[in-house]
Amino acid sequence: MSRIVKPHSEKLDDVIIETAKGQEFTVGEIKHSSRIQKSATPKQDLSWYIKWTASIFILASMSMRGIEGFQMYDLILSLIGVAGWMWVGFLWKDRALILLNGIGIILFTRTLFQDYIGPWLL
């Protein structure tokens, strides 16, 4: 049996919830706390690992951006990073992430072919 309780109701404030890490909080404490951080994104699932790995690739590419002789590595690392974030966009069904990173993949791939692969083939 389920029952709808309004968000501002105090009926559930004394109910204790145990987290995966073994911490215990009351519903009221979570509801009224500015100390407890609530993330909107999933944790410890496939998308969590992909988003952090993709972010590391993007940070690595940004760290070598503008250094003479590292432009190709910057492009490759950026391409891997935005492809990872596009995958996350598909997992989350987030159209903004899919659009942004899809265009990024097109632009990075075009530059990679135009500047590095195309001349090598000719």
Which descriptors would you attach to this protein?
4 helices; two-stranded antiparallel ribbon; 2 strands; mainly alpha; elongated; 122 residues
Beta-strand residue percentage? under 5%
Query: With helices defined by DSSP (H or I, 4 residues minimum), what is the helix count?
Result: 4
Mean pLDDT, nearest integer? 85
Silhouette: elongated
The biggest beta sheet is recorded as: 2 strands, antiparallel
**Biggest sheet strand line-up:** 1-2
The helix fraction, in percent, is 55-70%
Catalogue the unreliable spans: none
Question: How many individual β-strands?
Answer: 2
Secondary structure topology:
Elements: E1 16-18, E2 24-26, H1 27-32, H2 46-64, H3 71-92, H4 95-121
Antiparallel strand pairs: 1-2
Descriptive notes:
- There is one protein chain.
- With 122 residues, this protein is mainly alpha-helical.
- It has 2 domains: 1-38, no CATH class; 46-121.
- Helices cover 61% and strands 5% of the residues.
- It has 4 helices and 2 strands, in the order ββαααα.
- The protein has helices spanning 27-32, 46-64, 71-92, 95-121; strands at residues 16-18, 24-26.
- It has a two-stranded antiparallel ribbon.
- A hairpin with a 5-residue loop joins strand 1 and strand 2.
- Helix 2 (46-64) runs antiparallel to helix 3 and helix 3 packs antiparallel against helix 4 (95-121).
- The termini are far apart.
